[in-house]
């Protein structure tokens, strides 16, 4: 083989390798398997999840009448625990901030799996709701009370409870208010509940408000919001007002969110 022929073959081989490398670079640049998936899910919801949360649906902006009737359903935080009187709890204060009236249904210690101190778990309580109430908005809050129950059966219990809620109030707008941290750092199970609820809400096209993801309670304001002594790590009276103000602001952002061509929302708002 002559030196000239050998050099030509090397040159041809080098050109082929260069083309292969260029194509690989383009493919990797488009694929980027290490890059996080872009999700348009509301308030920290993942695009996919187990237990029925297969696809995220962009939620529509919240449309309410001038003086809405709002049912606030939840646990001890909704009950008003640790406020000077329960009626100074965030769920009651909310009525003055958004107008209309709030109907408060809070049971201490209650969760989707765990029965409460003053009543059963969420599923049984929802089944007992007054169908004649006809609220314009339902805010279903919490709960951190299921953190000791584990993940087994949790999503199934949430799905069943939410199915019952929509059956009772088919015309109501529903907003899910996730668990707020009663202590910092946020516990692993509390964080898991937050993710589970956000994914399940996203699958229904419901707005999900995550106090955890939106940093409503931080190391800087923790003792201003949470009564760690007599309140046993529940919001103080001032803490309840603060939560009501944060919730009111989040609801207002949802109400003014622009509509996309798909009928969802281009923005996501900030327990």
Strand content: 5-15%
Indicate the percent of residues in helices.
Answer: 25-40%
SSE topology string: HEHHEHEHEHEHEEH
Write down how many β-strands occur, each being a DSSP E stretch of 2 or more residues. 7
Low-confidence stretches: 1-53, 260-271
Rg: 25 Å
Please describe what this structure looks like.
It is a single chain. The chain is of the alpha/beta class. The chain is 38% helix and 11% strand. The chain has helices at 3-31, 76-79, 90-98, 122-127, 154-168, 188-204, 222-225, 237-255, and strands at residues 69-74, 101-106, 137-141, 173-177, 207-209, 226-227, 234-235. The strands form two sheets. A five-stranded parallel β-sheet has the order 2-1-3-4-5, sandwiched between helices. Helix 3 packs across helix 8. The chain starts with a helix and ends in a 16-residue tail after the last helix. Residues 1-53 and 260-271 have low confidence and may be disordered.
């Amino acid at each position: 083989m002559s030196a000239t022929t050998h050099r030509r073959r090397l040159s041809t081989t080098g050109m082929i390798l260069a083309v292969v490398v260029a194509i690989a670079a383009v493919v990797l640049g488009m694929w980027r398997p290490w890059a996080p998936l872009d999700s348009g899910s509301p308030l920290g919801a993942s695009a996919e999840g187990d237990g029925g949360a297969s696809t995220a649906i962009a939620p529509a902006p919240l449309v309410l009448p001038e003086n809405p009737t709002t049912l606030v359903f939840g646990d001890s935080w909704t009950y008003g625990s640790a406020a000077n009187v329960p009626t100074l709890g965030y769920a009651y204060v909310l009525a003055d901030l958004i107008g209309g009236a709030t109907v408060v249904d809070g049971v201490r210690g209650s969760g989707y799996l765990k029965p409460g101190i003053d009543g059963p778990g969420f599923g049984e309580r929802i089944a007992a709701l007054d169908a004649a109430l006809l609220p314009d908005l339902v805010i279903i809050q919490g709960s951190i009370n299921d953190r000791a129950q584990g993940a087994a059966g949790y999503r199934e219990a949430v799905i069943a409870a939410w199915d019952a809620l929509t059956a009772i109030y088919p015309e109501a707008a529903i907003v899910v208010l996730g668990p707020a941290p009663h202590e910092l750092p946020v516990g692993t199970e509390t964080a898991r509940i937050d993710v589970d609820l956000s994914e399940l809400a996203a699958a229904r096209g419901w707005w999900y408000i995550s106090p955890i993801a939106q940093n409503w309670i931080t190391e800087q304001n923790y003792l201003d919001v949470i009564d760690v002594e007599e309140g046993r790590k529940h919001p103080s009276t001032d803490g309840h007002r603060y939560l009501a103000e944060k919730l009111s602001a989040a609801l207002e952002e949802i109400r003014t969110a622009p509509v996309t061509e798909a009928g969802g929302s281009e923005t996501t708002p900030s327990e």
